[in-house]
Amino acid sequence: MTRLRDLAQELGLSATTVSRALDGYPDVAEATRARVMAAARRVGYLPDPAARRLRRGRADTVAALIPGGPGVELTALLHALGTCSATLAEGGLDLMLVPARDEAEERRRLARLVARREADAFVILRTRREDARVDWLLEQGVPFVTHGRTARAAEHPHIDGDAFAGFRDALRHLAARGHRRIAHVAAPDSFMFGHLRRLGAMAGATEAGIALSLAEATPDAAGGHAAVRRLLQQGPPPTALLCATDAIAIGAAHALREAGLRPGHDVALWGHDNIPAGTFLDPPLASMEIADPDIGAHLARLLLAVLGGADPATLGTVLPLRHIPRASLDATLTTQEETP
């Protein structure tokens, strides 16, 4: 195995010069850097990663905190993080996945990673309106990017879908099809996605002159089932359910069937996230998702930009949602149901 000093001796340079050339330091002449890199490739020299990180004072690693709790959709999440990892690798960075059982453990893991300097930056997922993780990272001056906004989104890099517009337009669509008794099965308002989707549904209902019913659910199938059971006990059933997530909608579909109502026939049903399980529901579940399929690559580019010194306040991106109509929207309305 070729060692650094062997490579330096072959080139007639000091080991320090060769090391700095390989690490990309700007005080090394470009011609010397090119000569060193060419020689390293020719002999198959690979720097010791631990020694290199120690010299540079960097971990060359980004940590993504995987949240616990109900309703975390891992299929889409891991796909996005896989794309993020591939893009980061092009910039010489590794992606570390750090699972946590709950928010408290997530904060502890975050503080430990920062204290040990085991990551140069972080990906924060499933943001809250008032997010203690974001507050702490901003106070510490640690680079990070969020998938989702917070109340302090103007201060930090983020990427998000335009949930407000997506749910407002979904409500408009339902109203245009004649629905007047519409309920929004909402995720908890403490989550930013739940808050924005709720506001969008309410705005669409106001535009349409509809008194929107609201039922809050934990963001999983069990929560959707329980919330719709409660809703159905309060009076005439809605003709349409606009659910904050597909998981909530799947639970809602079960509650409707228990009450003798058929999704897609008696009640229109619509979710968000476009999870694979929704396409196998009977009938297939209408959904929506961020229109851009390369969310992971976007996250990686934001991370590389902030690590490169870009102003975090300029790195916010909100992408449009695309609606995915399926047979669960095909409820048949009677004249009485269409009357406000």
How would you concisely characterize the structure shown here?
It contains 14 helices and twelve strands. The chain is α/β, with parallel strands linked by helices and 340 residues long.
Relevant terms:
434 Repressor (Amino-terminal Domain); 16% strand; 340 residues; 3 domains; transcription regulation; 6-stranded parallel sheet; transcription; Rossmann fold; Peripla_BP_I; Lambda_DNA-bd_dom_sf; transcription cis-regulatory region binding
Structure description:
One of its GO terms (molecular function) is transcription cis-regulatory region binding. Keywords: DNA-binding, Transcription, Transcription regulation. Residues 2-56 form the HTH lacI-type domain. It holds the Pfam family Peripla_BP_3. This is LacI family transcriptional regulator. This protein is of the alpha/beta class and 340 residues long. The protein folds into three domains: 4-56, lambda repressor-like DNA-binding domains (434 Repressor (Amino-terminal Domain), Orthogonal Bundle), CATH 1.10.260.40; 61-161 and 292-321, Rossmann fold (3-Layer(aba) Sandwich); 163-290 and 324-338, 3-Layer(aba) Sandwich (Rossmann fold). It contains 14 helices and twelve strands. It has helices spanning 4-11, 15-22, 30-43, 49-56, 74-90, 103-115, 132-140, 163-176, 192-208, 221-232, 246-258, 276-279, 295-307, 335-338, and strands spanning 61-66, 94-99, 121-125, 144-147, 158-161, 182-186, 213-216, 240-243, 268-270, 287-290, 316-319, 321-324. It has a six-stranded parallel beta sheet, with helices on both faces. Strand 6, helix 9 and strand 7 (213-216) form a beta-alpha-beta unit. Helix 1 (4-11) packs across helix 2 (15-22), helix 5 (74-90) packs across helix 13 (295-307) and helix 8 (163-176) runs parallel beside helix 9 (192-208). The radius of gyration is 25 Å and the shape is elongated. The N and C termini lie far apart (80 Å). The relative contact order is 0.12.
